[in-house]
Amino acid sequence: MRVLGIETSCDETGIALYDSKAGLLAHKIFSQKTHIEYGGVVPELASRDHVRKTLPMIQALLKATDLSPTDVDGIAYTAGPGLVGALMVGAVIGKSLGFAWQIPTIGVHHIEGHLLAPMLEADPPAFPFVALLVSGGHTQLIKVMQVGAYEILGESLDDAAGEAFDKTAKLLGLPYPGGPHLAKLAQEGDAMRFNFPRPLIKQKLNFSFSGLKTHVANTIAKMGHDAQTRADIAASFEKAVVASLMTKAVHALEVTGLKHLVIAGGVGANQNLRQSLSLLGKQQGFAVTYPRSEFCTDNGAMIAYAGCQRLLAGEQDNDSIKVRARWPLTELRIPCPSISDKYCYDAAI
Ligand code: KG4
Ligand code: ZN
Q: Which of 197, 265, 284, 318 is 20–30 Å from 14 (CA)?
C-alpha cells in the first residue's frame, strides 16, 4: 500500500510518500520562517503558510518520485493534537484529494506519528519499548506495546522540554525556535559553571521544567549576560534538562522491566541528549534508538507511516472533516477493522 502523508499541525509542512513494501519513497519538509520576528508561532500565519505550501509540495513529491495520483492508495493527514486552523488545512486538502482520487483517508494522531517515527529507520525497534517523547508541547514517558496500545508512565507537570528550551533561549536573546540555537550556544559553554536544579526527584516518572527557567532568569539578572556567561548558562541548562530526562527514562525502564528506549519528538534531535543516553545505555545494558534528526522534529513521513498501519488494518475516516486541538493519546485503540467505527474524529475544538 502506498500512502501520501500530510503533516500541518504546527509550523512545519511535511509531505511524504510511504510504501508498505518498499519503505519511505520520498519526503519534504518546509519549516516556516514567518514566525521568527514574533518569537513564537502565530497560528493564523501558520495556517496561511500551510495553504501556500501543501499542494505545491505534494505535486513536487509526485513529480520527484515519478508517480501519479493513480499510484497512491491512501492519504494520511494529522488530525490532532495541534493548532486547529493549521490542522484544518492538511485535513481539508487530504480529504479532498481522497475524494477526487477515490481512495481512503485517515486522520492520524500527531504523537502516534512521533512514537512510530523510529519504524522508518533501517533497524526499527521491536515492540514493546519505552518511548521518551520530548517535543515542543509534550514530555512523556510512554510504554509502547504495539501500534495503538500506549500507556503513559509519566509526564511533565508544567512546561514541556522543548518549551523549556524555547523559553530559556528567548531569555538568552536567541531566535525562535530556540532549542537548536541554545544547543549550539551550549557547545561553547562550561556546563559545570552553574548548578541548576533537577526538580521532582521524588516523583520518579514525572517531569517539571518551569522552575529551571526561573533559575535561568534569576542567573541572567544576577550575572549579566556577556558572551561567555550566556554560553555557560546554555550549557548548564542543557545539562540539567538532559540529566532530568535521563534519570526518569532509566526509571521507566526499571519499572517496566523493558530494555529498549526510543527517543521521539523535536528535542530528540539534541546531540547532547542522544550521546548521553547512548553512553548510559551501553553502561547499563539497554538499547537506545532514535529516528534520524529530521524525523525527530515534525515531518510527513511519520504521519504516512502511522496512517499506513491503520489503513492496512482496515480503518478509514468517515465523511466529515474533523480535527482536534487536544486529543489524549490514551484514547487511541489498536487498529482493527471490527472497531473502525470508533475512530470517527469527533471535534473537541
Ligand atoms: O516535535 P516538534 O518538531 O514539534 C512539536 O510537536 O512540538 O518539536 C519542536 C521542539 C521545539 O521546542 C524545538 O526548540 C525543539 O523541539 N528542538 C530542540 C532541538 N531541535 C528541536 N531542542 C533542543 N535541541 C535541539 N537540537
Ligand atoms: Zn511534533
A: 318
Q: Which of 83, 297, 303 to mutate to test the pocket of ligand 1 (most atoms within 8 A of CB)?
A: 297
Question: Closest by alpha carbon to 93, among 83, 81, 107?
Answer: 107
Residue 121 domain-assigned (yes or no): no
Atom of ligand 1 nearest to the CA of 269: 26
Q: Are residues 157 and 280 in the same domain?
A: yes
- pLDDT tens-digit readout, 210-219: 899 899 999 9
Question: Are residues 285 and 302 located together in one domain of the fold?
Answer: no
- Residue 189: give the domain boundaries: 127-290
159 lines ligand 1 (CB under 6 A): no
Verify that 283 and 303 share a domain, yes or no: no
Query: Is the entire prediction scored with pTM above 0.90?
Result: yes
Which residue type, as a one-letter code, is found at position 141? L
Cβ–ligand 1 contact at 80 (below 6 Å) = no
Alpha carbon nearest to ligand 1 atom 10, residue: 136
Ligand nearest to the backbone CA of 138: 1
Q: Tell whether 349 is covered by a domain.
A: no
**Ligand 1 atom at shortest distance from the alpha carbon of 162:** 12
Sequence-distant (6+) residues with CB within 8 A of 177 are: 11, 136, 162, 166, 169
Q: Total domain count for the chain?
A: 2
Confidence of residue 223 (pLDDT cuts 50, 70, 90): confident
Is beta strand 23-31 parallel, antiparallel or unpaired with respect to 12-19?
Answer: antiparallel
Distances, alpha carbon 206 to alpha carbons 153, 272, 275, 345, in Å: 8, 21, 22, 29
What pLDDT sits at residue 337?
Answer: 52
Q: Does residue 100 share a domain with residue 54? A: yes
- pLDDT (tens digit per residue) in 84-111: 999 999 999 999 999 999 999 999 999 9
47 plus 183 within the same structural domain: no
298 lines ligand 1 (CB under 6 A): yes
Residue 11 is part of a domain; what is its CATH number?
3.30.420.40
- Which tens digit of pLDDT belongs to each residue from 133-157? 999 999 999 999 999 999 999 999 9
- Average confidence (pLDDT) over 12-27: 98
